[in-house]
Amino acid sequence: MSFLTKALTLDRRWIFLAIGIVVILFLLIPITLPVDVTPESQGVYDTIEALPSGSPILVAWDFDPASKPELEPMALAVIKHCFRRNLKVVAMGLWITGAPLIEQDINQVKANGFQNKKYGEDYVNLGVKVGGYVVVNTMAQSIKDAFPTDYFQTPLEQLPMMQNLKTLRDFPVVISFSAGDPGIKDAWVPFAHQRYHCIVAGGCTAVSVSEFSPYLQTRQLSGLLGGMRGAAEYEKLVDAKALATKGMNAQSFAHLMIILFIVFGNVAFFLTRRKRVQGAEGPRVQG
Amino acid sequence: MNWTLLGIWIGALLTLCIYSFLYKDNPFYKFAEHVYVGISAGYLLAQDYWVQLRPNLFLPLWNDYAQGQVHFGFIPAHWYLFIPGILGLLVFTIFIPKVSWMFRYTLAFTVGVFSGLAITAELSARVLPQIGGTLRPLLELQNGHVSPWETFCNLFLVVGVLATLIYFFFSKEHKGFIGAGAKLGVWYLMVAFGAAFGYTVMARISLLIGRMQFLLGDWLHLMR
Fold it and tell me: If exposure means fewest CB atoms within 10 Å of the residue's CB, which of A51, A115, A273, B115 is most exposed?
């Protein structure tokens, strides 16, 4: 059996091992590849930057721990940006399994230079409510109807920041980090943007980028962070390089490895096919 | 006891158990899989109580009775909360064959509300704006001059939409003009599938990176 034929029947576990080694290696080697900011990511940054200091902003954690590596870095960078711009952050989520992530992420950002931010005055965590676009619609009538209490079971009327925030229409901008449905596509764009005229931007997992991109073209989304790359771009924009920037090194080299595997696999397939075809035709020619 | 450290160790060992499946199916993987399913179910049940049932149903009714906000001595001020409460309970009739038909009321209510909201939203947010987004000028002007790149992009988009629609038009045999259009549509579809697959690879590698960052950073402290 030739080398190429052997390569075509290679046990897939060797490919898993190779990808694993490349990822581990380039997470440990301290190099930083350049990250260019795309107009889609710039759109999210500009949307937040355009808000006057002290404006309210609704940020939705519409993901669960399964999508944490892609969406959490962008949530951290966006919250850092909001705090830096002194925006009043109202955090919430539509995914029940993502409830603890909101508190964890806000506390992480607070611990890194924003200890002065006070709960109830600078930010509020409403917690999670299941129901997708029904929740968004209810919030458009009354936030208190959708969230009678915050994450800590405190009635909303006891939180100073919520005194002037009664409905979804009080938020000029909604940012959603969306791992699927419910999220940007079926809750925030159709209702918050289309029906209640809020500006909607956000981030999504890489799998969803091609699905969400048409909303950028129609300007129903003012910006979109796509996967870990989008998170790394936002970390660059807010000058806070963290997990996504580090992860992009490993990501780039893993992609290179996969491209090499695909090219090698195709070359091997076509070369051996030619041999197979010649081998099959051989006896016929002689006969 | 350092609970965070214990959590990191449990997380790391369960991650290794799950990844062991890449070599072959084994008892460690099965153990981690069952733990995951069990904990997820329990967690969802607890969250449903604390996030949905307690603040939206039990607390308002409890407060009504505790604070004496009742009509005729027994009807609470939030009496209308009994309607979703009863509809929720009706779901459980599915386990009793004789009265399982009652489950249909809950189903009908849910389908009705969700369709009423979704149909208008679908049209106003997805169908119409996306059709509008496809109606592009075939000659794009910028400052009174034709912009060749923008014009090309618009043509590329419009031709792509038409070719892909032709591919999905099955009432006429794909021959001649229709056949050529369908073939072009296939090329557009292949490019779209390629882009989607590329993003899928990126997403999956990101998940691997996330786990490796946890193992190398939080667990082994090897990452700076």
Answer: A115
Pairwise CA distance, residues A285 & A270, whole Å: 22
Q: A128: which strand partners?
A: A93
Restricting to A residues 35-74, those with a Cβ less than 8 Å away from any Cβ of B are: 66, 68-70
Under a CB-based contact definition with an 8 Å cutoff, are residues A232 and A244 in contact? yes
Tens digits of residue pLDDT in B93-121: 999 999 999 999 999 999 999 899 889 88
Q: How far is CA B82 from CA A131, A148, B47, B60, in A?
A: 19, 17, 21, 11
pLDDT tens string B160-188: 999 999 999 888 888 999 999 999 999 99
Query: What pTM did the predictor assign?
Result: 0.90
**SS3 sequence, A113-150?**
CCCCCCECCCEEEEEECCCCHHHHHHHHHCHHHHCCEC
To the nearest whole Å, the CA of B126 is away from the closest chain A CA by: 8
* Residue A240: HSE in the Cβ half-sphere, 13 Å Cα cutoff: 16
Determine the Cα–Cα distance for residues B12 and B192; give it in Å rounded to an integer.
Answer: 37
Residues in A touching B133 (Cβ below 8 Å): 214, 217-218
Q: Is A231 an interface residue toward B (CB < 8 Å)?
A: no
